Amino acid sequence: MMTHDQIWAALDRLAARAGLSPSGLAKRAGLDPTTFNKSKRVTNDGRERWPSTESVAKALAATGVSVDTFAHFIESSSRTVQVPLLGFAEAGSGGYFDDGGFPVGEGWNEVGLPSVNDEHAYALEISGDSMKPAYRDGDVIVVSPGAPIRRGDRVVVKTKDGEVMVKELRRRTQKVIELQSLNPAHPDRTFPTAEIDWIARIVWASQ
């Protein structure tokens, strides 16, 4: 039997897969931006509030995700796996990633999160407010080094100089990578491809 927590966790995963926050997913679906927010999931008197069939259908149409895939999100939301966890501020330090951006070495903690289809997936805990409104201090993002990356995806990027950042991929060619900032107060970035150590897609976020 599907539970209240499972359906909302599946919607969160749907949003993360599209590189969106819950409010961003609602806006893309043509709904009120607060439709999928946490404040809408429980009534003022503590009763569980379920998303409407219409709102879920619009979210699926907006993201191009099938009903079968969403059903898998619901099913897998009841299962958790332990993935390596690292503070975002530490990600630029040496010894935590190999040349391909896969987690290695010691110093990682672990956290139980919804199952992801990448045995090399890992989690980063956001610190500070530089990624608002997409991610806030304390949010956890799951990164999949093996996931395909497309234009518009939210990604974690590490440069050859050791700088690690979360951005949206605007354009990627053989010579250059253009990244859009998630926070309008911070500038967009452009790098020669040769200056990028690795880039990996964000597939889930705890929001």
TrEMBL record:
* Record keyword ATP-binding present: no
CDD domains recorded for this chain?
Answer: S24_LexA-like
Database matches in SUPFAM superfamilies:
LexA/Signal peptidase
Report a single Gene Ontology molecular function: DNA binding
Q: InterPro entries, per this entry?
A: LexA-like, LexA/Signal_pep-like_sf, Peptidase_S24_LexA, Peptidase_S24_S26A/B/C
Query: What GO terms in the biological process aspect are recorded for it?
Result: DNA repair; regulation of DNA-templated transcription; SOS response
Q: Where is the Peptidase S24/S26A/S26B/S26C domain?
A: 84-203
UniProt keyword terms in alphabetical order: Autocatalytic cleavage, DNA damage, DNA repair, DNA-binding, Hydrolase, SOS response, Transcription, Transcription regulation
Superkingdom of origin organism: Bacteria
Look up keyword Iron and say if it applies. Answer: no
Q: Belongs to which family?
A: Belongs to the peptidase S24 family.
Query: In its UniProt entry, what is this protein called?
Result: Putative transcriptional regulatory protein
